[in-house]
Amino acid sequence: MEITHANVQQHRATLPQHALVLTISSLTFRLLFVLHFNDDDATRACYPGAKREQALADVLMEHVNLCCGSINQQLVAHFPDLGMSTPFALSSRCIDFIDELRPDHVWRYALRPGGEARLAVTACVCAQAAMDFTASAMEEQGEGELELF
């Protein structure tokens, strides 16, 4: 598999059509992973379990979720407040808005597994972004009481 680091213009100009997005977040940072892919025969050939009637996005979501889960397990020992999203599918054009996250670091890679398939990865770290929610004062509740809704 050939992996090359791409600059922003090269990366955007050559992005495959689809994207899968995952995030790992804590109270102090957010990691965002975007896997860009085309649902074509060359890409399907890299994933032998992909059946023709099954969407390639579903197959890739399983793989990406396993990889991200492994990263999450390693980080949770150091960041106990860690949370991981489930993968979700978007258009690769979503990458045009990554600067809205005010990232501290962004890495872009072009992947050529098997020589013919074309994948791309964008990894983003937001370490200094302000919290995007506010907590209001919590109402005190008695201990051991059951509240019915």
Tally of individual helices: 3
- Structural class call reads alpha+beta
- Rounded to an integer in angstroms, the radius of gyration calculated over CA atoms is 19 Å
Q: Main sheet, how many strands, which sense, barrel?
A: 7 strands, antiparallel
According to DSSP, the number of beta strands is 7
Structure commentary:
The protein has 149 residues and is an alpha+beta fold. It has a single domain (2-126), classed as Chemotaxis protein chec. 21% of the residues lie in helices and 28% in strands. It has three helices and seven strands, in the order E-H-E-E-H-H-E-E-E-E. Strands 1, 2, 3, 4, 5, 6 and 7 form a seven-stranded antiparallel beta sheet that branches. A hairpin with a 6-residue loop joins strand 6 (105-112) and strand 7 (119-126). The model has no long low-confidence stretch (mean pLDDT 79).
In short:
This protein has three helices and seven strands, in the order βαββααββββ.
Tag the structure with descriptive keywords.
single chain, 149 residues, alpha+beta, Chemotaxis protein chec, seven-stranded antiparallel sheet, 3 helices, globular
Topology overview:
Layout: E1 2-5, H1 8-13, E2 18-25, E3 30-37, H2 41-45, H3 56-76, E4 83-84, E5 88-91, E6 105-112, E7 119-126
Antiparallel strand pairs: 1-6, 2-3, 2-4, 2-5, 3-7, 6-7
